Amino acid sequence: MYSCRLLALTLFLFTLSYQFLVIKSDEALIQNLCHKTPEPVLCADCLHLDPGSKDADGRGVALITVRCAESDAEQVYNFTFNLWQKTPKSDVALYNTLDTCSIQFLVAHDSFRGATVALEKGVLNWRGAAMDQLTSQVSPYLNRCLELFKKQPQLPLPNTILTGY
């Protein structure tokens, strides 16, 4: 499971976005698209946050979801960093795990830039380029934190790290 559910949603939307590459989005299309995702409410909330979503084509919708996921990753980073700062150094396992997690989330957040650029510039294979960036550069960093907590089941896994909000 991704620690940022919006990343999973973004990847899923990429697979569906071929349906309306040149067709403009509207409320019915947004609802139809979002109901096909594992997180329909999260999907709709993300798309409704951007006023341009109703006029967006497939690339525009993909860009909106990448920006939502990037924002989510930033929030999880901030949460984890603040939690790390508040954790006593005497709790070595939790302190070190949160330190590593905050670094991983920061790198993941920064790695969204490649996907954003591919979508903004409309590179020749924008879907493939953005998808590759998300799966090879973002996802592994997000998952490393969860792997650390799995290796140390005695540590409490904060829900915000698990769900992304």
From TrEMBL:
Return any one Pfam family short name.
PMEI
For this UniProt entry, which residues form the secretion signal? 1-19
Keyword Membrane appears in the UniProt entry = no
Pectinesterase inhibitor domain ranges (all copies): 25-164
Does the keyword field hold Disulfide bond? yes
Query: Which InterPro entries does this one have?
Result: Invertase/methylesterase_inhib (IPR035513), PCW_Enzyme_Inhibitor (IPR052421), Pectinesterase_inhib_dom (IPR006501)
Determine the domain of life of the protein's source: Eukaryota
Q: Which UniProt keywords apply?
A: Disulfide bond, Signal
The protein's matches in Gene3D superfamilies, at most eight in alphabetical order, are given as: Invertase/pectin methylesterase inhibitor family protein
User: GO molecular function terms here?
Assistant: enzyme inhibitor activity
Concerning its family, UniProt says: Belongs to the PMEI family.
Could you tell me what this protein is called? Pectinesterase inhibitor domain-containing protein
Q: Which organism is it from?
A: Salix udensis
